Amino acid sequence: MFFYGRQIPHATYAYRMCNAYASAKSRWRPLDTRLGCIRSLGQREGKNAVAWHRSKVRLRSTRDLIEKTWTRFALFCVCSMIMSSSAYAADHSPLFSYATPVNAEGEFSFDTGLFGRTGSGGTQFSTGSGFGYGLRPHVTLNAFLPAMFGTGDLPESRIMSGSEWAAGTSWRFLDSGRGVGRRLESTVSLSAVAPGPQSATGVLGNLHRAPGVAGSLAAGMTSRSQYLWVGSGYTRFAEASHDRRPDTTSWSVTYGYRPSKLRRGVDQWDYRGFVELTGEHTGGVKSGGTILPNSSSTTAWLGPSVLGIFKEFAVEAGVQGPIIRDESDAIYGRERIRFGINLSYLKYSSRSRSR
Amino acid sequence: MKKIAIAGILGMCALTAQGQYKQINMTVFGMDCPPCAFAIRLSMKNVRGVSGVDVDLNKGLVTIKLTAGSTAELRQFNEAVEKNGFAHQDADVLVEGVLSGSSKAPLLQVTGTNDRYALVPFAQGVDVASLMGKSVIVQGVLPQSARGKVPVTLRYKTIAVSK
To answer: Which of A157, B22, B51, B101 is in the most buried spot, having the most CB atoms within 10 Å?
Structure first.
């Protein structure tokens, strides 16, 4: 689910970057062998050659260290930007809605996806990098760095991500195993939201931006055959230079089903379908100290999504159409469709606390 | 010579570390999808002495097979379940250990581990008096324990002298 929006583009690129990082790391390794080189030189050419080579190696190693540090930092940023969608989804969840799953202890999750909102003002795509780490069995740290392209002049949304970066914690405070495959659980999330380097489009693009906070609560039931989640979230931004992005209240109800033929084993693809109902109410846009008239909006969206999982990989796609739309066409245009595709990779921890 | 000596010591250790859990069939609640099972399997495979782990999602059953001489303890498997956010239930075990205590209150010390259970018969009619002090193989059920705990009793179905 993605109230911060979970989007991120090409997972393959992310993995390529990670591989590049790995190969770069292996390239630095030869530095460790310099003593071996010096020793052999010393044997061949005497102590002066050793000293000369030692200073040369030291210089090179300093340069490499600087290069290595910057390369690592750059690769980390790139990987973070590209690996997307979040820990909030953690691969078990519906595409657009709030849900309860969190990462296992020591488990990393990376998501990448592409989300879009199409309306009369154009199509706005969003993508981003989601990262989650299971700190404890029921506590997950999340970070999400979205990117946006295209213009839609669309209203604020926390279901579909904008350009805000977010980081926070999810805590599954209720977790009750009620039977084989069955769980009842509730999760609360709290995040800090900060403006990213990109500004929004349309009315929201003219505002001075400030950080905000986002909170959500989700509860639900899982089983081998059916899923049901309900959730709600609220986001509030601070004021900056008499401007303020609108407060947003979001909610969702999701029903999921896995047909009996698809209740298969660990080493096979697992599929399930969802029907997702989401809604949002955004408050008025404050610009120059005054609330813009007709700038609030209320919408509800309904649509299907499908989730496929194979071991640590998951792919999910869905689409939604509006069933309620109370927003000013003059300010925002008419939003007609929302869609998304998300790829997840989970890095499970094989660590056992006591071996 | 040094290698031979080390190999000899390791061989002696393997011989003396007889007895342990042979197989554990643990029921786990809450696993609804393959990633849940995959995570459990990975965690348990990482416990030293585990030779194989099978997970049946539709039955919620995790089957753990252990190597000869394994020193894995039940606590480690419970932790593997807990850290992935699930709930362990009863576990059917095939375990080898030494019988101690008295014939009315027999205790099973699982060899090579710190696990110790009070033996309770699943059904009446099994006399363990003649097995006291001997190494035995027990098949039985370890009841569900609280999070972070291990059960203190083993309800045995069969018990026989270990060969």
So the answer is: A157
Flag if A266 and B41 touch (Cβ within 8 Å).
yes
C-alpha–C-alpha distance, residues B119 and B104, integer Å: 9
Rounded to the nearest angstrom, the gap between the alpha carbon of residue B8 and the centroid of all alpha carbons in its chain is 28
Which of B 83-122 lie inside 8 A of A, CB atoms? 83-87
The A residues from 240 to 279 touching B (CB cutoff 8 Å) are 263-268, 270, 272
Instruction: Tell me, yes or no, whether A7 lies in a domain.
Output: no
Instruction: Tell me what ipTM this predicted complex has.
Output: 0.76
pLDDT at A85 over 80: no
Please write down the long-range contacts of B128-131, taking CB distance under 8 Å and 24 or more positions apart.
B128/B99, B128/B103, B128/B159, B129/B103, B131/B99, B131/B106, B131/B159, B131/B161
Q: Which domain holds residue A318?
A: 87-347
The three-class DSSP label of residue A323 is strand
A200 vs A237: CA distance, rounded Å: 14
Q: How far apart are CA A199 and CA A207, in angstroms?
A: 9
A180 contacts B60 by C-beta, under 8 angstroms: yes
CATH number at residue A191: 2.40.160.40
B62 lies within 8 A of chain A by CB: no
Average pLDDT value for residue range A209-214: 93
The per-residue pLDDT for range A132-185, each reduced to its tens digit, is 999 988 999 999 888 888 777 788 888 887 778 899 999 999 988 888 989 999
- Per the structure block, which two tokens stand in for A138? 């029921």
Name the class of domain B18-161.
Answer: alpha beta
Q: Is A198 exposed, middle or buried (0-12, 13-18, 19+ CB in 10 A)?
A: middle
What single-letter DSSP state applies at residue A104?
Answer: P
